[in-house]
Specification:
The structure holds two protein chains of two kinds. By secondary structure, chain A is mainly α. Chain A is 72% helix and 0% strand. The longest helix of chain B has 38 residues. The chains are: A mainly alpha, B mainly alpha.
């Protein structure tokens, strides 16, 4: 562990944010939606360690609660995106031929758009809310996993033990699910850890553009966007911004550390 | 001759890709419950069936989706991207107006990002596991992790609002007139018009947004540079070059870096394409009238013609960037030239 200080830092920071989000109702000094208009945009003080926003809500409390939206959103995107993408990719790689062509060409079409632009178009079309932002990101995320999984399946398909399974008369579905897929899972998991920071970053970006949670909700990207109108009152946007930054940096430290461990060539 | 045939074949292959893009963007725009009428007509006119019918007829929304799509393709073949519902201008004209701002920003950011990223990546590989490597890698992770919209605000707050040493949002100060349109790139147009004052102002406004984007790009590039360089540095010809007594800097740059260029070029092309197409966050904070903001406005107002036009443009940008990258491979790697 001592060889990977950044990995350790990343794990600690992520745990701190998850605990903060889970215990937000115990730790936070104020309700995240409680307004106090007479004390609006107050700088950080002993009563409000993070200052107050444009409606007098406590910024520190809102940042703590914000983790309850952003962290699960990022994780859900990765879970659904990797499940959908891996399934589709495994089928493409296993069946080959026409199916492979069709599935991978469709995946490539989705990859032809930059992440945020495609997500923006989908969310704008479905209507802005948390669920639709997650759906939009899954639409953007699956092709990467489809491509990875297809490549893995193609490689593993040629192994002798797969041939052996055919020879003993195992059904095709059994071969795919029991013989091939388990050998792909490790690579997919490494990719998910490398990816989760990115998913959180993109979710916060959508939210910043107003295509995520409703405006009043204590979501970090949304808070930064609202804070722009109070640009000189830096605490309204800097604290939620730092929350996103530290969390994503931590997840990327973890992803990089794991990749170093699994791929010693790059060390 | 084979060189030109190669390019011609690549260009031909883009046609099915572009067709696919029109289909995907059309499906996304149509397979949704939202109705452009609700966004684009004022509330008072929504109850007037005549106006609603006229709106539908004007934009072809009264036809079946298949008819709409075929009409679109028919116009596209004649080079007509249609008219934006939101701006009421021809989509092609809109793109011509918004694209230069994005090109100017993305190009500057990419050049800065290459200098910084390749430098960091090479240093990181040469001093592997040294504190320099550790520092460079940490900076790379931070560069790709900090949201651009947060970094942009911090930079604006510190360098523009507090210290007053950098220009604020926009492409020029409000008091400045835009230079006469030639290329749409203000830095070039101002020089063409002989207006040094506009040139200096335009460059000043480019500094902050370029640096914000460049830090992200540098993060991507330095990671790839490091791993590509590590692979090359272990090669026998590096030892041979050193044994011949070649100076270390030449060994690293000429024998090392130029052999590591292929993956580096790939990531540069990818990130340049991404900046040209998807710098919407940076553009919206810096009030930069670019293609990302145009796409954002189009998506939020269900402006189908504009969404499809920009989607096509993005696909085209990727195709061109990829082609250029492939051609650069050809120049960087003599082995490819032989084939």
């Amino acid at each position: 562990m001592g060889q990977h200080p950044l990995l350790v830092i990343g794990v600690i920071v992520v745990i701190v944010w998850i605990v903060a989000a889970l215990l937000a109702s115990q730790i936070a000094p104020y309700e995240p939606l409680a307004q106090d208009v007479r004390n609006r945009v107050q700088p950080p003080s002993l009563t409000h360690p993070g200052g107050t926003d444009e409606l007098g809500r406590d910024v520190f409390s809102r940042v703590l609660y914000g983790g309850r939206i952003t962290i699960p959103a990022g994780i859900l995107v990765i879970i659904f995106g990797s499940l959908l993408g891996s399934t589709v990719g495994a089928i493409a790689g296993f069946l080959g031929g026409v199916w492979d062509e069709i599935i991978m060409r469709v995946a490539e079409l989705f990859m032809a758009f930059p992440t945020i632009i495609l997500a923006m178009a989908v969310t704008a079309a479905l209507g802005p809310d948390i669920r639709n932002a997650i759906i939009a990101l899954v639409v953007v995320w699956w092709p990467g996993y489809a491509r990875l999984m297809r490549g893995l399946v193609l490689k593993i398909k040629t192994n002798d033990y797969v041939e052996a399974a055919y020879c003993v008369g195992a059904p095709r579905r059994y071969i795919l699910v029991r013989t091939i897929v388990p050998n792909c899972i490790a690579s997919v998991l490494v990719m998910t850890t490398l990816d989760i920071g990115n998913a959180i970053l993109t979710f916060a970006g959508l939210s910043f553009l107003g295509l995520g949670p409703e405006p009043t909700s204590p979501e970090w990207g949304r808070m930064v966007a609202v804070g722009i109108d109070y640009f000189d009152q830096w605490w309204t946007w800097l604290y939620p911004g730092m929350a996103i930054a530290t969390l994503v940096i931590a997840f990327n430290f973890i992803g990089d550390g794991l990749r170093d461990i699994f791929d010693p060539r790059l060390r | 001759m084979t060189f030109f045939r190669y390019i011609a074949r690549r260009v031909l292959f883009t046609i099915p890709i572009l067709l696919g893009i029109t289909l995907v963007s059309f499906l996304i725009a149509n397979a949704v419950p939202a109705d452009p009428i609700n966004v684009n007509l004022p509330q008072s006119q929504l109850n007037n069936p005549e106006i609603v019918a006229a709106f539908r007829a004007e934009w072809g929304l009264d036809k079946s989706p298949l008819d709409q799509y075929l009409t679109y393709l028919g116009n596209l073949v004649q080079g007509n991207l249609g008219r934006s519902i939101k701006t009421r201008q021809l989509v092609a004209d809109d793109i011509a107006r918004f694209l230069p701002a994005t090109i100017e920003l993305a190009t500057n950011a990419t050049v800065l990002g290459i200098l910084l990223g390749v430098g960091l990546g090479v240093a990181s590989a040469v001093w592997r596991n040294h504190w320099i490597d550790f520092l460079a890698r940490t900076m790379a992770v931070i560069g790709v992790s900090v949201p651009v919209f947060v970094l942009a605000l911090v930079f604006l707050s510190v360098f523009h609002a507090q210290l007053g040493i950098a220009a604020g949002p926009g492409r020029l100060d409000f008091t400045m007139d835009e230079p006469a349109m030639v290329t749409g790139l203000f830095t070039i147009d101002s020089l063409a018009a002989g207006r040094m004052d506009i040139f200096i102002n335009a460059v000043a406004h480019l500094v902050l947004p370029s640096i914000v984007l460049a830090l992200y790009v540098a993060g991507l590039i330095s990671r790839v540079t490091r791993s590509a360089m590590l692979e090359v540095l272990g090669m026998d010809y590096m030892r041979t070059a050193r044994a011949k007594g070649v100076r270390e800097i030449i060994v690293i740059m000429r024998h090392g870096l130029s052999n590591a260029m292929i993956p580096i070029l790939t990531v540069i092309g990818l990130s340049y394409g991404n900046l040209l197409a998807g710098a919407v966050l940076t553009e919206s904070i810096f009030a930069w009238p670019g293609i990302g903001r145009y796409m954002f406005r189009a998506s939020t107002s269900q402006d189908f013609p504009a969404i499809m036009g920009v989607s096509l443009l993005i696909a085209l940008i990727y195709v061109v960037v990829n082609l250029v990258v492939d051609l650069l491979y050809y120049f960087v790697d003599p082995r490819l030239r032989a084939n």
